[in-house]
Design a protein that fits this description.
Layout lengths: L10 E3 L2 E2 L3 E4 L1 H10 L7 E5 L4 E11 L2 E11 L7 E6 L4 H13 L4 E5 L11 H14 L7 E5 L2 H7 L5 E5 L5 E2 L11 E5 L7 H11 L2 E3 L7 H12 L1
Parallel strand pairs: 1-4, 7-8, 7-12, 8-9, 10-12, 10-13, 11-13
Antiparallel strand pairs: 2-3, 3-6, 4-5, 5-6
Helix pairs in contact: 2-3, 2-6
Length: about 240
């Protein structure tokens, strides 16, 4: 099985995959059996979110469980594991979702969501975020379900970063433009954005004094989600 013919498929997601069979349950069962009306002996494509896309034949639909037999699979290597997008919670939920979706579509597989001093909202729904991510990898035919964590402060974000990691902070106060040539291989690259009001001076000093790397993406002020999409289009 090669990747090109997959461009017109419907992709499903499952965490219930054995050596020979794949089970679709809950929403994935509903989408496959009720929305797309797949029947026994029809083929479906399923990702495990760990890099594999499976081609399988439906052999049983019973008790809200769809069972399929694995025919073939392809493993798709990711080249973006060391790119970590650090996004603050945004007041506008649709813009927050937009930033997540577009980043995944372009290949980001690791996220850190955090609360900064100027964050307006402070509630994080990890179940909803995972659901958005599943929907996005299915729509964009991605085989990696991104990993993410939520941190309650900017200080916790700093503690997440190791001594040898590379850090890029994006703020209009930056005195230089970001270039992809500055990415480091073999170590984690953290890309940090502020919320609608930007990072506070305390937050900028907390990291910029140590790493001295505050960048800008434009001479004009960009919305957070716009800056994120522009950055991701550069690094991927």
């Amino acid at each position: 099985m090669i990747l090109e013919p997959l461009s017109n498929i419907e992709l499903f997601y499952s965490e219930k995959i054995s050596e020979k069979e794949i089970l679709l349950v809950d929403e994935e069962f509903h989408h496959c059996a009720n929305v797309f009306r797949k029947k026994i002996n029809q083929e479906i494509f399923v990702t495990d979110g760990l890099g594999c896309i499976y081609r399988a034949k439906i052999i049983r639909i019973k008790n809200n469980v769809l069972t399929s037999e694995i025919i073939d699979k392809i493993f798709i290597e990711t080249y973006n594991e060391n790119l970590i997008l650090c996004i603050p919670l945004l007041k506008n939920k649709e813009r927050f979702r937009f930033a997540i979706e577009k980043s995944i579509e372009m290949g980001i597989t690791k996220f850190i969501f955090f609360i900064s001093e100027r964050t307006v909202v402070n509630k994080f729904d990890d179940i909803k975020v995972k659901k958005i991510m599943i929907e996005t990898i299915k729509q964009s035919l991605r085989s990696y379900l991104p990993r993410f964590k939520f941190l309650k402060s900017f200080k916790s974000l700093k503690e997440e970063i190791k001594e040898n990691d590379s850090v890029f902070i994006f703020d209009l106060s930056g005195d230089k433009f970001f270039s992809k040539d500055e990415l480091k291989t073999g170590i984690n690259n953290y890309f940090i954005f502020g919320p609608e009001g930007g990072l506070s001076q305390n937050e900028l000093e907390l990291l910029s004094d140590e790493y001295k790397n505050v960048y800008k993406l434009s001479n004009h002020r960009l919305r957070t989600e716009t800056a994120i999409v522009k950055l991701v289009s550069i690094i991927t």
